[in-house]
Each structure stands twice: as C-alpha cells, then as structure tokens.
C-alpha cells in the first residue's frame, strides 16, 4: 500500500504564501466528511508551531457551523471571521483573507459548506468562493476532505471537485471506522470524544 501511495510525494500542507502575506488554505468536500474539524485541527498544529491563524467560517448554511469553527478558534488561539447565517460564503471568505492580510497573519484557513458533488449550483458557488478569494491573493492549498469509508464514490467526488477548484491535496477522515457502520463505543470515530 505504501508503494501505491508513493512515499516520495510531498505531503506538506503549504501554508506559506510565495508572494508574501498569509498562506491561504481552502477546505472543501461533501457533507459530513469532517471539514470543520479538519480545519480546526490544522489550525491547532499551525498555532502550536508559532503561527498566527485566521479561520474563515464560510459554511454559512449548516446550523452552528460557524459556532463550531469559532469554538475551535478559541481553543487553539486563532481569530475567526464569520458572517450571517445563510449569508454569502464568498463574502465571508473574502473578509477572512482581508482580515488575515490586515493582521499580518501567517495563514488563513477557509472552511466551506459541505456540498454534494452532483449539485451543479452548489459546485458553481464553490467556484465563486475560490474566484473571490483569488482576487486578493492566490490559494496555496485546496484540500478535499473525503470520508475514507466512501469507497469508489470518493474518486468521483475528487474528479468533480478538482474540475471546480483545482484540488491540491486530500485529507482522509474516519479511517478508524468499520464496514459495519456502527461502533460499540460512543467515543470512537476519527476525532474521539469532545
């Protein structure tokens, strides 16, 4: 399996912007894959390494998504930019990058709403978020979060998301699940108890 994955490949998440300013990372994927948690954990690692981080809560559709990301920000010491529930996610992403630049942050992590890759309108909206962010600065990473138990559908998701937002990396979550789809422990799962 290691040979198939290619151990010589670069596995670094690039959070340093080549043109100065904060490194900008956008996190995308379908509903329920763990995008917000992945964003929070990435922020934790970056802050622990001495970086200043701005979180962009561009998931304006899921109830409490911005609250969840803000809780992560408070836990790890990152500033969170959010907008009104149901608001324009591209606007939130734009504001996050703008504040990141004004604060001279090291990284801006943009958490986007989960969206089915089969819904053209939602995918078009994701493309808009990317274009709006790139008006201020280039994206350094676009991470696709996939549920590792998805199987072949994960490849389809990757193809469609790559066409819309030029995926630069993949994050696999829920690797400790089983094919049964259930667990005997209420604290199992890729992130454990909270």
Automatic annotation (TrEMBL):
SMART domains: AAA (SM00382), SRP54 (SM00962). GO terms for cellular component: plasma membrane. The keyword GTP-binding applies. It is found in: Cell membrane. The keyword Translocase does not apply. Residues 22-192 form the SRP54-type proteins GTP-binding domain. One of its GO terms (molecular function) is GTP binding. Residues 21-171 form the AAA+ ATPase domain. Keywords: GTP-binding, Membrane, Nucleotide-binding. It is a peripheral membrane protein. It comes from the Bacteria. InterPro entries: AAA+_ATPase, P-loop_NTPase, SRP54_GTPase_dom. One of its GO terms (biological process) is SRP-dependent cotranslational protein targeting to membrane. Belongs to the GTP-binding SRP family. This is Signal recognition particle-docking protein FtsY. It comes from Streptomyces haneummycinicus.
């Amino acid at each position: 399996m290691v040979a198939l994955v290619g151990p010589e490949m670069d596995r670094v998440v690039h959070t340093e912007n080549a043109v100065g300013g904060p490194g900008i990372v956008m996190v995308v994927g379908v509903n329920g894959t763990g995008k917000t948690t992945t964003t929070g954990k990435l922020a934790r690692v970056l802050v622990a390494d001495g970086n200043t981080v701005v979180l962009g809560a561009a998931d304006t559709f899921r109830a409490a998504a911005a609250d969840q990301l803000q809780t992560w920000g408070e836990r790890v010491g990152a500033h969170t930019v959010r907008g009104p529930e149901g608001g324009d996610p591209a606007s939130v992403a734009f504001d996050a990058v703008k504040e990141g630049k004004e604060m001279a942050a090291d990284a801006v992590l943009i958490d986007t709403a989960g969206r089915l890759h089969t819904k053209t309108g939602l995918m078009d909206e994701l493309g808009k978020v990317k274009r709006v962010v790139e008006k201020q600065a280039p994206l350094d990473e676009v991470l696709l979060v996939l549920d590792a138990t998805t199987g072949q559908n994960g490849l389809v998701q990757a193809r469609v998301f790559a066409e819309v937002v030029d995926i630069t990396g993949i994050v696999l979550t829920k690797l400790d699940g089983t094919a049964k789809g259930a667990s005997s422990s209420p604290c199992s799962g890729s992130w454990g108890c909270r």
